[in-house]
Amino acid sequence: VAIVSKELFEPTFKISQRQDNIVVAPNFQDPDGIANKSKLNISFESDTNCITSSPSGIEGILNSSGIKFISIGRFSREKGHERLIAAFERFHDSNKDAKLIIIGGHGNLFVKTLRLVKASPAFKDITIIRSIMNPMPILKRCDAFVLSSYYEGFPVVLFEAAVLGLPAFGTDVRGIRGFVNEFGGCLYENSVEGILRGMNDFAQGRIKPMKIDFAKYNNEAMRVYKSLLSTSKQKLEKQKI
Q1: Which residues in 159-235 belong to E strands, given as ranges?
Q2: Which residues have a Cβ under 8 Å from the Cβ of 124 and sit 6 or more positions away?
Q3: Dist. CA 144–CA 148, nearest whole Å
Q4: Cβ(23)–Cβ(12) below 8 Å
Q5: φ and ψ at 15, to 5 degrees?
Q6: For 203-222, what is the mean pLDDT?
Q7: How far is it, in rounded angstroms, from Cα 199 to Cα 90?
Q8: What are the helix and strand counts (H, E) for the chain?
Q9: What residues contact residue 172 under an 8 Å CB cut-off, 6+ apart?
Q10: Do 104 and 132 meet the contact criterion of CB atoms below 8 Å apart?
């Protein structure tokens, strides 16, 4: 059983009641592809929804002054968008030029999230984008990535933020804890207050981009998968005998 992070060992063991067949196998990543995608022009698809108060659209937001926070993840409960919005509202009280961009795809909470934004006192500085094939050009031009999740498996967007040199912080939850701690990221209490503390710390220059040796990361992933395939092959050969 291949799991993508050490934090998934315990819940996996609860299901299988076996430890001997669980292996941590990191996802392969494509840093060059991520960097190349970030250099392209921002492009919306026919089904893209971009809700923003800026007359110039997303370009107006990205070219504006003030800190620009971004979060990317489907519009579903685990992503914690409602508390991200709540934390941003409080940050916005003393940082009136700050911006928040939330990009999502699938999920059944898009309408609810949009209602929360429209009812927010910080509405004019919150942008919602739904369904975009390549969010990398937008991510690159923001100042910090925020992961407000209640729980995670392994969010690839943390890796993408690191490739693009963006400081990133998240809630201290299973699934990202080991990755963030290993590469020098920042974790905060799993709450609105924790997310707000992260925003304030970033504003005060306390959060820096994670440092990842991308070649080493992928080489380790390759080593693990080769080992898994080799072990499987040996077992199959023994069964034939």
Answers
A1: 168-171, 186-188
A2: 53
A3: 13
A4: no
A5: -80, -45
A6: 94
A7: 10
A8: 10, 9
A9: 187, 188, 189, 190, 194
A10: no
In which residue are the tokens 């991308």 written? 214
Q: Which residues pair with residue 24 across a beta bridge?
A: 3
Rounded to two decimals, the pTM is: 0.88
Task: Tell me what percent of the chain is helix, strand and coil, each rounded to the nearest 5.
Answer: 45, 15, 40
Pairing of strands 126-130, 49-51: antiparallel
Rounded Cα–Cα distance for residues 192 and 56 (Å):
31
Quote the tokens at residue 53.
């108060």
Helix (H) or strand (E) holding 70: strand 68-72
> pLDDT tens digits, residue range 92-135?
999 999 999 999 988 899 999 999 999 999 999 999 999 999 99
User: What are the tokens at 138?
Assistant: 């937008």
Note the helical H segments in the chain: 9-16, 31-38, 57-62, 81-94, 110-118, 136-140, 156-163, 177-182, 192-203, 214-240
Instruction: Say how far apart CA 143 and CA 141 lie, in whole Å.
Output: 7
Tell me the Cα Rg of the chain.
Answer: 20
Q: Is 3 left (phi over 0), alpha (psi -120 to 50) or beta?
A: beta
% of the chain beyond a pLDDT of 70:
95
Cα 173 to Cα 158: distance, rounded to the nearest angstrom = 14
